[in-house]
Design brief:
Layout lengths: L3 H7 L5 H10 L9 H8 L3 H10 L3 H11 L6 H34 L5 E3 L1 H9 L10 E4 L5 H10 L3 E2 L10 H4 L2 E5 L6 E5 L12 H6 L2 E2 L19 H4 L2 E2 L2 H14 L5 H10 L6 H10 L3 H15 L8 H4 L2 H17 L24 H9 L10 H9 L21 H4 L5 H10 L9 H7 L3 H10 L5 H6 L10 H16 L1
Length: 497
């Protein structure tokens, strides 16, 4: 089934701000040079475009593309706003990179093997420059058996647990996948992973991931630089390691699918990985072994439809299945519902005024934007567009400090489910009242192959770290969490409502 039908069914081609954003992310900006495209740029709602760019965490790429495009109808104030955010993100990514290098050296020096997930290491691996991707925290992956010792050294480095949850029995090793820590002075958050994914699904062991690792870049070192014999003695304390390319695709496709791809940044990662040196022939049996075919097919279908990503020949059968097409449509509906604006756009093109239901990224931004456009305001373009953009200056920014990729406005755990575009819009209209359809488990289960689906359902019977927060027990009585599991689950379920 052709991937073009994915966009046609979702009616995304009717959204000109989103269309421009996708063109910039896919590097397809040539058609914006002709006269017809110039008219579209003149009528563009640049405030909404900025909001979409921030929501999808793609400010660096969009800024550099707009700067290269250099079209007269692009407001200068928009470029200044994006430039300021680009500089702030660069400083933050360099700070995270340095802190990741410090922690990695600390753990490796004490015999703990560490792999870096996402963050600065992924930015360097896929983009060649840490400033070209955004990140809010540092993700480190270690072996489950090293967790206690790693936690000790994290505390020695000045980090404190954010949750304070007690790990119950041994089920935490396969039911959960990370713990979060925060440095109170540096305000840096660390997620220490012992698994790639939650819920005990299929995934490679840490030993397999470690054996296929790629050498990353510690602060001040060169990316993928070969080691000389003299360097071998210090290699384990001077380098950071990241996932190998094949495992990287398995991880990124499953991570994006689990969150409904509500940020385009994750799809851009897939687009960049598509042109890397990946052994696609070797990846295919790996996807079958670890149940990665549904998420992988969805990732390719979305990347091809939205960004024009070329699908490698061995991956084309995976992306052409009915399941991949169905999952891609579910993700498109979720993307629409996760953006704080109705879809399709309800205000007139070029009016510069936002409809009441189209919530801006922050209330302060909305109030200032409306104040800048009295009586309907001028068209948001050229000089008039700069007046609207001035209202956003100093208010909008990349909110990586306050926003987690693993959190979305509609709660991934509560609403990541198949839905039609009409249902997506309906959800947006009611989300202020927190009225959501509790069908997320259907979507999450649809991403799993039958054998992993059965294991997921069985795992629900075992205790989790959340049980200890609902009903604390001394460690010697933790075995009681097994018979208490149904009652504690019900208590948490009804407490949420």
């Amino acid at each position: 089934m052709p991937t073009k039908s994915v966009l046609e069914l979702a009616n995304w081609n009717e959204d000109q701000e989103l269309t421009l954003l996708l063109s910039l992310l896919g590097k397809d900006v040539s058609h914006w040079q002709d006269k017809t495209a110039a008219t579209q740029l003149r009528e563009m709602d640049w405030v909404r475009f900025l909001r979409l760019t921030e929501h999808h965490r793609v400010v660096p790429t969009v800024y550099l593309q707009l700067k290269t495009l250099n079209h007269p109808f692009i407001p200068a104030e928009l470029l200044r706003n994006l430039l300021a955010q680009y500089h702030r993100n660069t400083l933050r990514m360099l700070h995270l990179q340095a802190e990741a290098g410090r922690l990695t050296r600390l753990l490796i020096a004490h015999g703990i093997r560490v792999l870096m997930l996402k963050g600065p290491a992924l930015a360097q691996q896929l983009y060649g420059d840490v400033s070209l991707r955004t990140s809010k925290d540092i993700d480190l992956l270690i072996a489950p058996d090293d967790m206690d010792e790693a936690e000790h050294w994290m505390q020695e480095a000045g980090y404190a647990s954010k949750s304070g949850e007690v790990r119950v029995l041994g089920s935490w090793k396969w039911k959960d996948h990370h713990a979060s820590y925060l440095h109170p002075q540096k305000r840096v958050e660390i997620e220490l992973h012992w698994r790639l994914h939650p819920d005990g699904g299929g995934e490679p062991s840490f030993d397999e991931l470690w054996s296929c690792r790629q050498m990353g870049k510690a602060t001040g070192a060169s990316w993928m630089a070969p080691l000389t014999p003299a360097d071998n003695r210090t290699a384990m304390t001077s380098c950071m390691y990241t996932l190998g390319s094949e495992h990287q695709f398995l991880y990124l496709s499953a991570h994006g699918a689990r969150h409904g791809w509500f940020r385009l940044r994750w799809l851009v990662d897939i687009d960049r990985l598509a042109v890397c040196a990946v052994d696609w022939e070797a990846l295919l049996p790996m996807m079958r072994r670890y149940g990665g075919l549904p998420a992988g097919g969805q990732a390719w279908a979305l990347a091809a439809a939205l960004l024009g990503t070329p699908i490698p020949e061995p991956m084309r059968p995976v992306s052409a299945t009915r399941q991949a097409h169905r999952l891609a449509l579910s993700a498109l509906a979720f993307m629409q519902a996760s953006v704080p604006a109705l879809y399709p756009i309800t205000h007139g093109s070029g009016t510069g005024r936002l409809a009441p239901s189209e919530l801006l990224h922050s209330r302060a931004l909305a109030e200032q934007a409306e104040a800048a456009l009295p009586g309907g305001g001028p068209s948001v373009c050229s000089t008039s567009g700069e007046a609207a953009m001035l209202a956003t200056r100093g208010v909008t920014s990349i909110r990586e400090d306050a926003s987690n990729d693993n959190h979305n406005p509609m709660s991934t755990a509560a609403s990541c489910a198949p839905m039609t575009p009409a249902a997506a819009s309906s959800q947006v209209m009611t989300k202020n009242r927190a009225v959501y359809q509790p069908v997320s488990r259907t979507y999450l289960l649809s991403l799993k192959e039958p054998r992993h689906r059965l294991w997921y359902l069985i795992s629900r019977l075992f205790p989790s770290t959340g049980d200890s927060s609902v009903f604390p027990l001394p460690r010697q009585l933790h075995f009681l969490y097994i018979p208490l599991r149904p009652f504690l689950w019900l208590k948490r379920r009804f407490s949420k409502h």
